[in-house]
Amino acid sequence: MKRQLLLTSTTMVGIILVGNFGGVTKTVAQTSNNQEVTINFQGRVGKQPFECGKTYTLGKPATKVTPDDFRFYVSDIALIDNNGKSIPVNLTQDGKWQYQNVALLDFENKSGGCANGTVETRNQIVGTIPKGNYQGLQFTLGLPFNLNHADSVIAPSPLNLTSLWWNWLFGYKFARLDWKTQTHNSQVKHGEKSEKAQGFPIHLGSTGCQSIEGSQSPSTCSNLNTSKVIFTKFDVSKNVVIADIAALIGNTNLTINKKNTPPGCMSSPDDSDCNVIMTNFGLPFNGKAAAKQKFFRVE
User: What is the pLDDT of residues 28-57, one digit of tens each?
Assistant: First the structure.
């Protein structure tokens, strides 16, 4: 069978297949009904771009902090057509940043305090979608349950980063935003109502996951902690998704840490240090219903 490309000056119209089909020579035209799309993201701290090693003033009271990490997974990316229907984006399987319906966005570059990260960064999602007119964007912050509890040692990229994996029960860190504060007082002792914070890492992930044995993947998690984000107005050719750390932290006090809890916010439902953060992720938390997320916006 001969294969011949039929091209115009700017686009590929289709593929012409010439061959013998049951003793009859036929010419069959194959055309593509898909279009490539690139969805751009930016990491910000308020109006400032995110940079490893840079000092920012965040939280309430205002606290000087320097970043150690800024990465997150998104999944189930879709564009919304003019009829309000969500059309899934078929992600390019690049063997590095995207796998199945999951993409990793990475704004740290291993410089400054970002020692746990990677030199390479990633600020876009690439894929294809049926040709048409689209007016909105939809995605989920986090991983689907069937991929969340994979073994990072043998998982394909970008699920092979051990720095974004907790353990069998909790699975992956859907988002990792680590900070060092400049107000740490090593003289403050444990046992006080609250403790001075040496840093304020934010690790978003599932909690309350149940497994028959510790080495087996859980069958359920009481708190999935995946947040669905919908923008009814989004033009892929013009708009960018802003992930704003300042909007996420909001009124969080970064200088203290609840007694007998891990530093910062580790998504535990009994950690009051997470109250504002989980709400701003758009998640129900500690008996409080989910509110509109504030972490992402469109520009």
Answer: 344 589 999 999 999 999 999 999 999 999
30 assigned to some structural domain: no
**Domain housing 70:** 35-184+198-298
Closest listed residue to residue 232, CA positions, set 165, 134, 166, 162: 134
Q: What is the pLDDT of residues 78-123, one digit of tens each?
A: 999 999 999 999 999 999 999 999 999 999 999 999 999 999 999 9
- Number of other residues whose CB lies within 10 A of the CB of residue 47: 7
Instruction: Note the Cα 239 to chain centre separation in Å.
Output: 18
Interior angle at CA 280, CA 254 and CA 79, nearest 5: 140
The tens digit of pLDDT for each residue in 150-206 reads 889 899 999 999 999 998 788 999 999 999 987 543 333 333 445 565 689 999 999
Amino acid at site 57 = T
Q: How confident is the model at residue 214 (pLDDT cuts 50, 70, 90)?
A: low
Instruction: Write the DSSP symbol of residue 93.
Output: -
Q: What is the number of residues in the chain?
A: 299
Burial pattern 26-41, b for ≥16 Cβ within 10 A else e, equals eeeeeeeeeeebebeb
* Residue 3 belongs to some domain of the structure: no
Residue with the two structure tokens 């444990």: 190
Nearest to 137 by CA among 176, 108, 164, 103: 103
Query: How many domains would you assign to the chain?
Result: 1
Whether the CB-CB separation of 77 and 138 falls below 8 Å is answered with yes
Distance CA 59, CA 273 (A): 12
Q: Cα(72)–Cα(117) distance, rounded to whole angstroms?
A: 12
In a domain, 251, yes or no: yes
Contact 73, 176 (CB under 8 A): no
**4 lies in a domain?**
no
Report which of 83, 75, 56, 59 is spatially closest to residue 67, judged by C-alpha positions. 56
Residue matched to tokens 């043998």: 154
Q: Kindly report the pTM of this predicted structure.
A: 0.85
